[in-house]
Amino acid sequence: MDIINELPEKRFNELDDLLAFISIYDDDNRTRAYMEMLNQNRRKIKNKVCVEAGCGFGLISEYMAQLGAKKVYAVEMNPQLFQIARQRLCQYSNVELIYADILDFKPNEKVDVLVHELFGQMLYDEDIYTLDRLQFNPQLVLPDKAVLMGGCINSGELVDETVTPEIIQKLNGALVSGLFDDEEMELTFPIVPWQFDKCHYDTICDISSQEGDLLYMGLHILHNEQVICRAGECSNWSYIWTPRCGNRFSLSFKPSSRGTQVFFDWLK
Predict the structure, then answer these.
(1) CB count, 10 Å around CB of 235?
(2) CA torsion, ordered 255, 116, 17, 184, to nearest 10 deg
(3) Residue 43, H or E segment
(4) pLDDT digits over 34-85, tens only?
(5) How far apart, in whole angstroms, are the C-alpha atoms of residue 214 and residue 165?
(6) 150: three-class secondary structure by DSSP
(7) Backbone conformation region of residue 58, classed left if phi is above 0, alpha if psi is from -120 to 50, else beta
(8) Domain spanning 9-117: which superfamily?
């Protein structure tokens, strides 16, 4: 979904985030995986103080309230999303909706559980960096790990009358999402990991042992070392594609005022 007409920047950003959450919740596999993760940790949520960072429509905060959390802080900075979440969550006495950036949120009590979904398609390319700068220290983070994975394939297995070999070569140096249908691809090697308090914003990856002239990347999201959601299964996270131009590449992420900038280069 895209906004077609010109709008003031603030209004555009608010509605752009709103549309992004619609696509997130439309991803049934992703939503189901998150709810199952919460259910598996229901004993750690019951009677505990919980925070949802960027609560969006409030579905996760609502489920934590239903699981018996002592208190749920549903934190949201987008005014459009805040209003939607307020309508959903106003019936729960154990939920407090906070209109704030998660970076500015400082609760007056210990936080037991933090739930988030701040991953971009390339792991760090949205807002996951904010968890490095929190003003509180949760005892449990859900999910607690993610890895940007990679794979290589011969482009001849995927090209068609539209995406031809000539088209692919013109994409040298560009990381492109959705270039091919997101059927499940085998992701065979790690590129860059994330864990709470252990961010890696720069990496150099050697793929000399891999065969294929097309590099693709995809996200694995884990908790307790078990994959709960991955690119290909969850439509919210597409595969990223680029023509292979060597055996080593650098990938770095730089947080900015809105999201994160991604820098990618093939190395000689």
Answers:
(1) 15
(2) 90
(3) helix 42-45
(4) 999 999 999 999 999 999 999 999 999 999 999 999 999 999 999 999 999 9
(5) 10
(6) strand
(7) left
(8) Vaccinia Virus protein VP39 (3.40.50.150)
